[in-house]
Amino acid sequence: MIPTEGENPRYQQLFLNAAANGAIDELLLPEKVKQNEVASSSTRKKLTDVQATLAISLAINPTDLTKLINSFGTNDILSFANLAAIYSLNLLAKTFRLTIEELLTLQSLTGIDVLTSPANTLRFIDKVETINTAGVKILDLQYLLTHQATDLGDRILPEATITVWLQKLQGEYQKAFDITKSLYKVFDSTQSADAIAQTAEDNKISLKDLLGQLPNDPDNLQKQVFDEVTISKFMTILDATWLSTSATDAFIDATLGKFFGLVQLTLVKTKQGELAIVTTAEQSTATILAATPLSDPTYQSKLDDYNNRNKEKQQKRNELIQIVLEMLSNYFFEQAKYKSLVQAIISTFKLDDAIARVLLKNAKLKEPAITSPKTLFELLNNDN
User: Fold this and answer.
1) Cα 254 to Cα 238, 259, 269, distances in angstroms
2) Residue 141 falls within a domain, yes or no?
3) How far is Cα 246 from Cα 243, in angstroms, rounded to an integer?
4) CB–CB of 360/375 below 8 Å?
5) Could you give the 3-state DSSP secondary structure of residue 208?
6) What digits encode the pLDDT tens for the residues 278-334?
7) Model confidence over 191-240: pLDDT tens digits?
8) Total number of domains in the chain
9) Please, which residues have CB within 8 angstroms of residue 214's CB and are 6 or more apart in sequence?
10) DSSP result, 85-145
11) Which of 121, 138, 203, 297 makes an SS bond possible with 102, Cβ 3.0 to 4.6 Å?
């Protein structure tokens, strides 16, 4: 509230200063305002009844004052609380060099009632500073996020411009695909187990390189998820030398789980389980073969059995590597697409990186009218 008592109180300086305002509006006398606050709805005065005086007292443009009053909706009675709110909002706008329209727009965009508490005021100021740092205008941000503006017709991009923009973005997506496509080498099932095993070793090299390129732990940015030790452990899974199912599953969850969802992790663990089963069978045939003399009539059949199991094992190794490689390839493709999309938004709308990302995450198209419109990112990231 604006102080009304004491020596030369602020209320008197603002609203009861005949020298500055030209006259004293009796409706603004403290006792009159008090009476008005408890008056019946039929006789209660509204802010519009003292609008001319308020414009002079607060040195505010009449149009801006109308916007402030309208922001109160039906709660626009002449009261100490509303007078203090108008004074405070006007002061806040001037302090941060915002127009009243910008101030009210940012309140709407952020959902922050700036006068509810000091904490809210500080949060609002932080948003103002973020936008100022980004170099974007609040009304531009409103248009980008909500497709609303007083000059909406002038802001809409021509269809030809949008077409060129989308074609350029499509070209960037194609470059991203070419750079990140899976390097998996397909094995020839007609080859020997040794040849298929060599294909697996070649595929492991590509996989090791991609694992090392994954970013740090999203939950701890100072920690690398796939360091050299972790990559070496992961290779034992692909070599089928780490066969403890529970330990392997936990390891996969703790590493790949930082970047991939349940469906993808389940696919990896299922394929690893298949490899473990085949490896156990291969080891069993190897043990039987080692105990069989060369002169034994069954030696050749046991050798064939071992070779078949070993070949199946090498095939399963390649299949597991293929799944992980394609997951990683798709991950890096999506990252590259997102980077291209952010850059396109930055260059088109002259935004900084942080604001561009907020726009992609939150902006939704107004037309055509649908129940659940997709975000700008969902639309532009859709391959269909």
Assistant:
1) 17, 10, 12
2) no
3) 9
4) yes
5) helix
6) 999 999 999 999 999 999 999 999 999 999 999 999 999 999 999 999 999 999 999
7) 999 999 999 999 999 999 999 999 998 888 888 999 999 999 999 999 98
8) 2
9) 225, 226, 259, 328, 331
10) HHHHHHHHHHHTT--HHHHHHHHHHHT--TTS-HHHHHHHHHHHHHHHHHT--HHHHHHHH
11) 138
Handedness of CA 349, 353, 359, 361 (dihedral sign): positive
Token match 């009675």: residue? 77
Q: DSSP per residue over 324-373, as a string?
A: HHHHHHHHHHHHHHHHHHHHHHHHHHT--HHHHHHHHHH-B--SS--SSP
Side-chain-side CA neighbours of residue 192 (13 Å)? 5
Domain contains 136: no
Domain boundary among the residues 93, 117, 135 is at 93
218 and 340: one domain?
A: yes
One-letter identity of residue 41: S
Q: Which domain covers residue 16, as residue numbers?
A: 1-93
Both 66 and 189 in one domain: the answer is: no
Q: Is residue 268 part of a domain?
A: yes
> Which among 269, 267, 266, 227 is positioned nearest to 247, based on CA atoms?
269
